[in-house]
């Protein structure tokens, strides 16, 4: 089964907690702090591989979680860092943030890696909080917050040349005659239900990858029929061979078919509508096609290069393939995602964004910065709690709460933790 899109939830590992410990050796019963740092939580890393052709592995398992870092220990012993969780995806996979739709990575090279969720940093042990005034700190830092997100994995077939055309125009036959691929061929619609890849080896010694994409029907841009299952895989190709059944055996008009498919391409993606196309008139071995050939050349010949072939007999195939190769060699590489846009999304999640608002009789403060602050605060320790209150004041949270009308003993909820407001 060919699976080319999957929704996955990923959660990296939380950082290990720092340790609160003191030296208690035989001759140092009142020794100083000796709590070690916690280990880093495991990252979740996507790795592109040519060994996979579909996203089948993600069809049944939707949730992935990396291990947490190990807590720090006494005697200044650090907790171990957690192993990263490696998820393999096919080359050609686009990684998209579900919430925003922003493309985070284009996994287009074998062995390419992308950290889709970063593990939390290890919390500092109490030895790190010792100074000339605080000689025996009785608190440590909890492990850092782990990244968590919903992502969409979208496989866009990597091929140099795509075969475009309505069902049953001869694309599978074309592929079988020009490559070693063995697609299923029969005289009925939608023989091809999944993309078939083949390598064309030219007599010159050069080669390129060609793909027989599932046939398109009207409304594909809205998901009708195979819809996006078809259009998604056209995006990476450098040139399209638009195959038309010039025989008109099924009562179809080749020119009308050409325009209908291009309307679907334009509706799905403006970029697709400008992709280079070569018109290929197939089934030239069938008698009585002169009028159809004339009509296509008159109406489309001024804008497109037109080649006549018979896929079943092999006539005219070499000329088409060499022309396609010329375009493959001269085409510019397309960029499928904006690195700066992805970076901006990452930074947005890391900014000191703080939201302060009122709902009903309660006041709320949340945001990524406060999530980290709450996670790193030991509310059972006076010094740690005092630091928490200082940060809220320094960041303007207290002032904002007062502006909203908060007064003594009102309930304040900071990232799920409730407090009584004290002016």
UniProtKB/TrEMBL annotation:
In this chain the Obg domain maps to 1-158
For molecular function, the Gene Ontology terms on record are: GTP binding; GTPase activity; magnesium ion binding
The subcellular localization recorded is: Cytoplasm
Q: What class of enzyme is it?
A: hydrolase
Query: What residues bind GTP, as annotated?
Result: 165-172, 190-194, 212-215, 282-285, 310-312
Indicate yes or no for the key word Cytoplasm: yes
| InterPro entries, per the entry | G_OBG (IPR031167), GTP-bd (IPR006073), GTP-bd_Obg/CgtA (IPR014100), GTP-bd_prot_GTP1/OBG_C_sf (IPR036346), GTP1-OBG_CS (IPR006074), GTP1_OBG_dom (IPR006169), GTP1_OBG_dom_sf (IPR036726), OBG_GTPase (IPR045086)
Tell me its cofactors: Mg(2+)
Q: Which residues form the OBG-type G domain?
A: 159-329
Q: Tell me the function of this protein.
A: An essential GTPase which binds GTP, GDP and possibly (p)ppGpp with moderate affinity, with high nucleotide exchange rates and a fairly low GTP hydrolysis rate. Plays a role in control of the cell cycle, stress response, ribosome biogenesis and in those bacteria that undergo differentiation, in morphogenesis control.
Protein family: Belongs to the TRAFAC class OBG-HflX-like GTPase superfamily. OBG GTPase family.
What protein is this chain from?
GTPase Obg
Whose protein is this, by species?
A: Dethiosulfatibacter aminovorans DSM 17477
Q: Which gene encodes it?
A: obg
């Amino acid at each position: 089964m060919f699976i080319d899109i999957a929704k996955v939830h990923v959660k990296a590992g939380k950082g290990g907690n720092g340790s609160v410990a003191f030296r208690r050796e035989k001759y140092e019963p009142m020794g100083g702090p000796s709590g070690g740092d916690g280990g880093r939580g495991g990252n979740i890393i996507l790795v592109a591989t040519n060994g996979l052709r579909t996203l089948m592995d993600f069809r049944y398992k939707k949730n992935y979680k990396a291990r947490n870092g190990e807590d720090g220990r006494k005697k200044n012993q650090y907790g171990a860092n957690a192993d990263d969780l490696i998820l393999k995806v096919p080359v050609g996979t686009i990684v998209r943030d579900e919430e925003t739709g922003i493309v985070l990575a284009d996994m287009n090279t074998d062995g390419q890696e992308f950290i889709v969720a970063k593990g939390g940093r290890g919390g500092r042990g109490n030895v790190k909080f010792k100074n000339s005034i605080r000689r025996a700190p009785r608190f440590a830092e909890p492990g850092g917050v782990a990244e968590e997100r919903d992502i969409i994995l979208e496989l866009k077939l990597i091929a140099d040349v795509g075969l475009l055309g309505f069902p049953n125009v001869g694309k599978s036959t074309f592929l079988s005659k020009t490559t070693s691929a063995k697609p299923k061929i029969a005289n009925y619609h939608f023989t091809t239900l999944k993309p078939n890849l083949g390598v064309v080896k030219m007599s010159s010694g050069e080669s390129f990858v060609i793909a027989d994409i599932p046939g398109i029907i009207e409304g594909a841009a809205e998901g009708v029929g195979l819809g996006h299952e078809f259009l998604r895989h056209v995006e990476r190709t450098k040139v399209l061979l638009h195959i038309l059944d010039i025989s008109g055996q099924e009562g179809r008009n080749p020119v009308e078919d050409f325009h209908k498919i291009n309307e679907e391409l334009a509706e799905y993606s403006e970029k697709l509508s400008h992709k280079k196309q070569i018109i290929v008139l197939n089934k030239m071995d069938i008698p009585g096609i002169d009028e159809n050939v004339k009509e296509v050349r008159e109406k489309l010949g001024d804008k497109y290069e037109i080649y006549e072939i018979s896929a079943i007999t092999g006539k005219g195939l070499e000329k088409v393939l060499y022309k396609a190769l010329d375009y493959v060699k001269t085409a510019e590489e397309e960029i499928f995602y904006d690195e700066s846009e992805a970076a901006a999304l990452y930074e947005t999640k890391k900014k000191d964004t703080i939201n302060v608002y009122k709902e009903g009789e309660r006041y709320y403060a949340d945001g990524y910065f406060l999530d980290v602050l709450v996670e790193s605060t030991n509310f059972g320790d006076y010094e740690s709690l005092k630091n928490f209150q200082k940060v809220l004041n320094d960041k303007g949270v207290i002032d904002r709460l007062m502006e909203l009308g908060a007064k003594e003993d009102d309930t304040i909820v900071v990232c799920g933790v409730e407090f009584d407001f004290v002016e």
